[in-house]
Amino acid sequence: MRKIRIALVSLDWIRSKDPLTNLGHASILSTLQKYNSHQVTFLNNHRYSVKNCLDVDGFSENVVKNLVVDEPDLVAFGVYIWNELHTQLILKKFRKRMKQVDHVSIGFAGKGSGEGKIMIDYLRKPLILLGGPQISYAPINTLENYYPDADLFIRGYAEKAFSQVVETLSTPNTLEEVSMRSSQYPITHQNCFLRSISTSLNTSMVSNAPTALLHKIKGLHQRGHPDLGLQAAVDMTSLPSPFLPIEPLENNSNSQSNSVNSPVIPLNNRSFIRWETQRGCPFKCTFCQHRDSYTDRQPLSTPRTLSEIQAITASSVNDIAVLDPTFNSGPNYLSTLDNLIKYKYKGKLSLQTRFEMIKPQFIEKCSVLVNEINTNIQLEFGVQSIIKQESLIIQRMNNLKSVKENSLLLNKHNIKFEISLIYGLPFQTIESFKESIKFVKELGAERVVAWPLMLLRGTELEKRKDELGLREEVLSSVNLDSELPKERISEGIPHVVESPSFTKDDWKEMMRIAHELT
Fold it and tell me: What ranges in 237-376 are assigned the alpha helix state H?
C-alpha cells in the first residue's frame, strides 16, 4: 500500500459568527479520518475566507506558497460561485509552480555489476481534484474547458467518491488491470500518479498508475476520459459527524492505531453552528442549484442526529442554522423536533421551510419549543414573488391562500418567521416588486428581506438567460453609487442587472427598496 499526502483547500465566504470550516468541507474531512486514515500519511486542511478579498492575486499567491510547502500528491478544492475567480487563479499559479519542479531522474541500484537495476524516480505535478456546486452542475463535456489545470472532478455529494479516490491512489494496481486499460487510455507521464516513487524500469509506467482505474468511481470525471455527467451518491447513514469524535474504521491489516480523532468542528466554546439533518429538495426552482437527481430526501441516520442534539444541548451552542433546503419536507423532521424538545434546546433555531407544507404536527411541535422550552425558532420562507408570470418562470408558484392561513397560525402560536423575495427576476418591474413586498408585509413576518438574482451554474435560468434577455454584470461596491447598500453586493459574482422588463436604473431602484426592508 502506498500512503499519500493530501491538501484540502476551503475558500469560504465566512461571516462573523461562522465556524472557520464549512459543513461540507468538514464532512469530507471527517469521512477521510474515519475510512482512509491508514492510507494517508499527511492531511492538511487549508481554510481561507474570500469575503472582502480585494487583492485576489496576492491572496492566490499566498495559498499557492502554502500548498507547495505541503508537497501534496492530491490537492482538492470545493468550487462555489463566490470563489470561482480565486480558484481559477490559484490553479493557474499552482500548475505553473509545479511545472518548475517536474523532473525524471535515472539512477542505479544493486550490490554489484550484473546485479544492478535501472531505477527511475518520478516527481510529477500533484493531481488536482475539484468538487462543489460549480462542478456538480456544469454541463457534460464542459469541465475540462472551465478548469484546464485540474485532473479530477466530482459531481454530487463528494464524501464517498473522494474516499474512493484516496483508496484507489493508495492501492497499486496489478499489471493486468492497468494493461487492460492502457490500450484505450495510454498511460503517460501526464496521467500517471507518480511522486517520489522508485521502481524498476520495465514496470514503472504500469504498476504505479492507479489513476488508470479512477474513472470507475461513480460521479468522478477524469481528464482525458469520457464525461458521463453522473452524480456521486452517498449513503447518508454511513457518514461520520463532524461534530463528534471520529473513530477510524479498522478495515486493513496495515491500519494505524484506532485512536479517536477530535471532532472536525468542536462544539466547545462555540455559540453558532450550521447543521444538517437531510439533503435534497423536492422542488425544481429554476434559479436554485438544489436540483438533485434523487427522488427522495436523504436523511442522516437517526442515531447520529440524536447524538448531535445531545452534544449540542450539552455545549455552549445557542444558535443553529439548519441547512436542509426544505426542513419540513423530509421524512424525519418531526422526530428531530421531538428530540430537540426532549433535550430542551433553548437557543435560536433557524429552519428553511415552505408555507404550503406546514402541517398541524409541525405547528404543534414548534409551539412546544417556543412556548414551553423557550426556543427561539425562526422559520425562513422563500416566497420569492407573488406575481404569476414571475412565479411561473422560476417554477415557484405559491398558494397565496395557504400562505395567508398558515401565517395566521404561526402568529397565533408566537412562532417567528422571515420571508425572502428576489429582485431582478424575468418579467419583473419595479411595480411588481413593490406588489410582492406589500403582500408579504401584511403577513406579520418578523422580517422581510430581498436578494438580487444571480444565475448559478447549471440552473434553468442560467441556461435560458439569452432567450430571456437577462444581462449580468460583475459588480464592485467601489463602482456603485455611494448611496447603494454596499454590503448587499457579493464581489466578483455576476448579478442580473437588466432585462427586457427593467433597466439597470430600475434594478438600482429595486436594490434601494430591498435595502430599506432591513
Answer: 302-313, 333-342, 360-368
